[in-house]
Specification:
This protein is of the alpha/beta class. The protein has four domains: 3-153, Orthogonal Bundle (DNA polymerase, domain 1), CATH 1.10.150.110; 157-252, Beta Polymerase, domain 2; 258-331, Beta Polymerase, domain 3 (2-Layer Sandwich), CATH 3.30.210; 341-575, TIM Barrel (Alpha-Beta Barrel). It has 25 helices and 17 strands. The protein has a seven-stranded parallel sheet with strand order 11-12-13-14-15-16-17. Bound molecules: 2'-deoxyguanosine-5'-triphosphate, calcium ion (2 copies) and zinc ion (ZN). One calcium ion (CA) binds next to helix 12 and strand 4. One calcium ion is lined by residues 186, 197, 199, 248.
């Protein structure tokens, strides 16, 4: 179990204890321990052999230590399992609904013994929730809306979370003898920003023997974190994880792996178009093979590449398979050269302890150098972001000084001095022109007043773009995936202004932002707007999240020439001053 999983289990236990109406002190101790573990720099698995170090962490006492030992040795927590047995596993899903806290859930349970989404919705529709103590009609309406919202965005997960679950499953599967290959398919393999359910394909000698395959399915059921089996067949098992995520695992004979990968990677509309093409060429394409229509003879199936080749197409990378022109491009050898992580020479959006980051300038620089970058930029917040301790003019100048000193001291990486300056409601920037002029690059971002009218927000962004100091716009739409929509504005007008002013747009790679999104990135490219891919790191460990940005860039058909931070340091510095 990694720290995230441990913290998750502790939070759930706290919620369940609260539903169980236990002593508030005990409940709080679980929440505090979960928070402490989330903030740890080291994995509990590494520390568990040194109990003294763990006990030194505020929030972890003797009792919690023994819980941690139990979790790591058993992969579960007895107390958690007992509470789930006493109530219902579906309680955990209810807890994810905004505004349905443990107290309300406990109240509904004690009156009606209902603990699932559909059940609570029915009670609300029948007006039975308003009748409960301390409830009312307004509260009931709020619960109904929260359940509907949950259904709308709920049930999807961030790409990062899906990837973590897929890696754990792979690790578990790889312990079983006779497996040659484990590969994710579906939206995860295509790199979509969110994933509905996980599709995983498994192949190897054990998949062609009935007895072995049954044993494999038994082994899969032992996966830590598995909550319930939804369906089970000869070659397939579907189950739900504690997080609520559904997983479909399919076992395949090795000679069908390519056809299955092609089919289950999707997208559905890519597959439909590909199958039509196959039919026109006298083939049938299925999840088992590509065959000839006339005599059903097999043409390809073991490898995906063969299928595309037989259909007279260049190989189409999974990220492009959305039926948005990729098949036509592959037919005329016109697929773009897609950017890869090694094309990037620097990451130029990161925060330090001067504002709301958790690492110092030197720590960030060392981590960026270790990542293999030639350059980086420190870009802390400006004063309008008061809760982040944003910099005013004077502190910003001092900060530039410190960045220049670190740059002189630290070998092997160029450190640019930058800032992430707030775009104020009227489009002015939050620091003086004379201070901004000292910066190597200026990221201008909206962090306040998201609810302006679209026309006003459009003007605000265009005004920021027209400021001669602005190098790029940070996380341009402001969305937070699964939590907050983009603020409304005219993306086309903003991109045109960016193009006119040689101002770049950021692709913020942080997994819950991915902003600009793939669709907007492709629009930007079509309009000649350059992109900068950044992590917006607040800790050295965040630098590796750049790969989520790379995947979105690939989905948007971007190549190295579309992205400014593939340039060497001197050219990049000029680009930040609008010269390219
Ligand atoms: P998700 O799970 O909502 O994030 O999206 P996907 O793309 O993973 O969709 P999912 O899990 O329903 O199905 C996985 C893949 O299986 C999908 O991308 C394409 C293939 N597939 C599923 N149903 C159909 C179908 O009815 N026709 C075709 N041609 N392919 C399908
Ligand atoms: Ca899926
Ligand atoms: Ca699926
Ligand atoms: Zn920001």
């Amino acid at each position: 179990m990694d720290n995230r999983a441990i913290a998750g289990l502790l939070y759930e236990t706290a919620d369940l204890l609260e539903i169980d109406n236990q002593d508030s002190f005990r409940i709080r101790s679980y929440r505090r321990a979960a928070e402490a573990i989330e903030a740890l720099d080291q994995q509990v698995t590494e520390l568990i052999s040194e109990p003294k170090k763990l006990l030194a962490v505020p929030g972890i006492g003797k009792g919690m230590l023994s819980n941690l030992q139990e979790m790591l040795s058993q992969g579960r927590l007895q107390l958690h399992a007992e509470l789930l047995g006493k109530y219902r596993p579906s309680m955990l899903e209810l807890l994810k609904v905004q505004g349905l806290g443990p107290k309300t859930i406990a109240l509904i349970w004690s009156a009606h013994q209902v603990a699932d989404l559909d059940g609570v919705e029915r009670l609300a529709l029948e007006g039975k929730i308003r009748a409960l103590p301390r409830m009312g009609e307004k509260h009931e309406q709020k619960i109904l809306k929260a359940i509907q919202d949950y259904r709308r965005i709920g049930g999807r997960f961030l790409l990062e979370g899906a990837e973590i679950q897929a890696n754990k499953l792979s690790e578990h599967l790889s312990k079983f003898d006779g497996i040659d290959e484990i590969t994710p398919a579906g939206s995860l393999r295509r790199g979509r920003e969110t994933v509905g359910d996980l599709d995983v394909l498994v192949t190897g000698a054990c998949c062609v023997n009935d007895g072995e395959r049954r044993r494999l399915l038994e082994h899969i059921i032992q996966l830590p974190g598995l909550m319930e089996v939804i369906a089970r067949g000869d070659n397939k098992i579907s189950f739900r994880l504690r997080s609520g995520m559904q997983v479909d695992v399919r076992t395949l004979p090795p000679d069908s792996l390519g056809a299955a990968m092609q089919y289950f990677t999707g997208s559905k509309s890519h597959n439909v178009a590909l199958r039509q093409r196959a039919l026109k060429m006298g083939f049938t394409l299925s999840e088992y093979s590509l065959g000839r229509l006339e005599d059903n003879s097999r043409v390809a199936g073991a490898r995906e590449e063969e299928i595309y080749a037989q259909l007279k197409l260049d190989y189409i990378p999974p990220e492009l398979r959305e039926n948005t022109g990729e098949i036509e491009a592959a037919e005329r050898a016109g697929l773009p050269e897609l950017i890869t992580e090694t094309d990037l020479q620097g990451d130029v959006h990161m925060h330090t302890v001067a504002t709301d980051g958790r690492s110092t300038i030197a720590e960030m620089a060392e981590a960026a150098r270790a990542h293999g970058y030639k350059y980086m930029a420190i870009t802390d917040h400006s004063k309008n972001l008061a809760f982040a301790n944003g910099l005013d003019d004077r502190r910003a100048l001092e900060h530039i000084q410190r960045i220049r000193e670190a740059d002189a001291e630290i070998e092997g990486i160029k450190i640019f001095a930058g800032v992430e300056v707030d775009i104020l409601p009227d489009g002015e920037l939050d620091l003086s022109d004379s201070v901004l002029a000292e910066m190597d690059l200026v990221i201008a971002s909206v962090h306040s007043q998201f609810n302006q009218e679209a026309a006003k927000m459009t003007d605000r962004l265009i005004r920021a773009i027209e400021n001669p100091h602005t190098s790029l716009i940070g996380h341009p739409t402001g969305r937070i995936l699964l939590r907050r929509d983009a603020y409304p504005f005219d993306i086309d007008a903003v991109l045109k202004a960016a193009q006119r002013n040689n101002v770049a747009m950021e692709l913020n790679a942080y997994p819950d932002r991915l902003d600009l999104c793939d669709r907007h990135l492709r629009m930007a490219k079509e309009r000649g707007v350059k992109i900068v891919i950044n992590t917006d790191s607040h800790h050295t460990s965040h630098l590796e999240k750049i790969r989520y940005g790379i995947v979105q860039a690939r989905r948007a058909w971007l190549g190295p020439q579309d992205v400014l931070n593939t340039l060497p340091p001197e050219l990049f510095a000029r680009a930040m001053k609008h010269v390219w």
